[in-house]
Design a protein that fits this description.
Layout lengths: L1 E10 L2 E11 L4 E5 L6 H8 L7 E6 L2 E2 L5 H7 L1 E3 L12 H7 L9 H6 L2 H20 L15 H13 L5 E5 L7 H16 L3 E5 L3 H7 L2 E6 L2 E6 L1 H6 L1 H8 L4
Parallel strand pairs: 3-8, 3-9, 6-7, 7-8
Antiparallel strand pairs: 1-2, 1-4, 4-5, 9-10
Helix pairs in contact: 3-5, 3-6, 5-6
Amino acid sequence: MLRINGLTKEFGGLLGLDHVSFPVPEGVIYGLIGPNGAGKTTLFNLITGTFKSTAGTVHLNNKLLTGLPPHRITQAGIGRTFQNIRIFREMNLLENVMVGMHTHLRYGLAGTLLALPSHSREEKRGRERARELLSWVSLDNKATIEAGSLSYGEQRKLELARALATEPKVLLIDEPAAGMNPAETEELMAQIIGISRRGYTILLIEHDMRLVMGVCQRIAVLNFGKLIAEGPPGEIRCNPEVIEAYLGKDV
């Protein structure tokens, strides 16, 4: 479904990403791991158009995404969360999720200005969908409270629901378990699996190896901007290059 081909990014002569290539099959939860600074979030930024690539291409269902502006890439079917939480703290949870729907709700200028029935119907449809997405991450019981009052873990789940509101074909999730306790991480694992079973393809960055090994069908490993391994979790766990990247090598 998603094909990364030779993706490269230079920062002032330094290679942040060096000719990285791998496919993400439809319907899988695909892990992207590596030490800090390996290029994982840079790869997400290239896929979503936040950064311009130095070389290489990204295709979604054989459609070239490289060179498109971020909003067009979102419309094409790429949704994402961020490593640093980006929610609207003074808006309630429903409103936060509905922000993600703006490319799909068909208000129309006239309907909005004149408060036509079509506007009310779309507003109702959006609220119902937003509440449904919040239920996927166990936040529907807090739909009308301000987002700023949520715990850190709940804010991460809210961002996940908002990314789903863009109706993505591929969902990019950047370190969803960061700052969560073991119980919250366990719940998150179940929710990610539940989202996948609803037909979403997921590309996941995460440092919690228990989560990665527990939910991902395939994993790619980056180190110093290079792809050093790709395959099922069992192979990745035993790969000498991966072990060296994380733990170092005896002299």
